[in-house]
Amino acid sequence: MVFHSTYPSVPVLDRPIHETVLGRAGEFADRTALVDGVGGLTVTYGQLDAFSRRIAAALAASGLRKGDVLALYSPNTVAYPAVFHGAVRAGAVVTTVNSLATVEDLTRQLLDSRAGWIVTVSHFLDTARAAAEAAAARGNPVREILVCDRADGHRSVLDLLACEDPEPQVDIDPVRDTAVLPYSSGTTGTPKGVELTHRNLSTNLLQIDALHHPGPGERILAVLPFFHIYGLTALMNHPLRCGSTVVVLPRFDLDRFLAAIAEHRVEGLFVAPPIVLALAKHPAVADHDLSSLRYIVSAAAPLDAGLAEACSRRLGLPPVRQAYGMTELSPGTHVVPLDAQDPPPGAVGRLLPSTELRIVSVTEDGGGAPRDLGVDEEGEILVRGPQVMKGYLGRPDATAATVDADGWLHTGDVGRVDADGWLYVVDRVKELIKYKGYQVAPAELEAVLLTHPDVADAAVVGVPGADGGEVPKAFVVPRPGSGLTGQQVVEHVAARVAPYKKVRAVEFVDAVPKAASGKILRRELRARQAGAPAVPAPRQGE
Length: 542
Hints:
alpha/beta; about 25% helix; single chain; GMP Synthetase, Chain A, domain 3; nine-stranded mixed beta sheet; Rossmann fold
């Protein structure tokens, strides 16, 4: 059975993403587009558009050409949108980099994407330089590292604004040309570059418009990272397309977050479940005036219905809305509309326009072809529409395993659709761990664990954390007689991965359960964990 959107179809938007987002900048010229939520600096739409054009001209004058890859390695700043849209206007592919990336993470992404340019901030320069040097040693030289602020020996984005060269006229094919290359672990495995075209991104914004369209001047708080496709779309590109004002925070700090809502009279929040938890339960919430808030939307990970209700009740708001999607879907496929009357608890939304969905049977052992299921039957979620990615960069086999010959993207998530068209995500086939909205690939952590000389074998699964989310837990087979401790395991991984990827719990086992094929039987490990207590929540910032 194929489920169709109940909303009128939208046309495929074959338009460069910078034109889709900033095409009305002249109309909104004097309106505030961006506010630095820490320092208070403001950028108008007229300035944002002009800055992006000057950056495009300066990059082109420096030798950047269509198809070159620029790595944008930065926390959220008011400069981020100008750099992003300046680079794509110049014809570049922007690969967004996690601001918590280690030297190894960044090196791997530079090599895989073949990035020739890095734009970062002075605080990240040590990592950027080390990664650029490592990439050059392996045959991928980085032509220049620029900074958004100031740093000796590096050009600043601020210097680019003075460029007097003509704006480059680049012939962009929205259908075929990749605009952004975020990295995702997909349904399994290590991170892969997700090729999203100008058409993918532009059309998905048009699809979202039908269910959610913030008004000109509406204030949105951007605390989730722009490098993540959720933040890039919901907190940067979509509100800027609509003429809204985006209040930018570099990272989540609860007190600063609450203060920004009060000071800037924020109306809309797009968050992940851990922030909903804080709003529902943290005592600091009572110390701030949050009366300007009109709605909250949660995505990036499943949100418990009880937690959503507790948050709404405490703040006196309509029910927290949810949305659903994934990097490979540009990212949106479902949204609970703000005007929905009494949406069912736990629903992640209704299909966006021009989007189709199937629920198919799950066969974990690979035996038998999946069959289509109907209303209220649980199975894997498949999606088809103009937002489906172009593919994984340089990985045709991985692409074919995710998007079938008929264009259906296999999400790896398990869900059901009720008689009214609401989607519920109930589990997932994929073994990706979602820690506070970040993607953590078990295979990546297992590879790190196995580099320890006293680890004979290891497996990693997501287990319940005390804050209601998931945390990575390692099941480790120690080398006999080694005296290996859990703390040593935790420290070994922590020294080699970004903070959000840390192993949060360790259990020593005699053997890792595996199928005859060698595949780790994670479901057995999750069952073993079922009776254990939740892992304590990490301290803020970990």
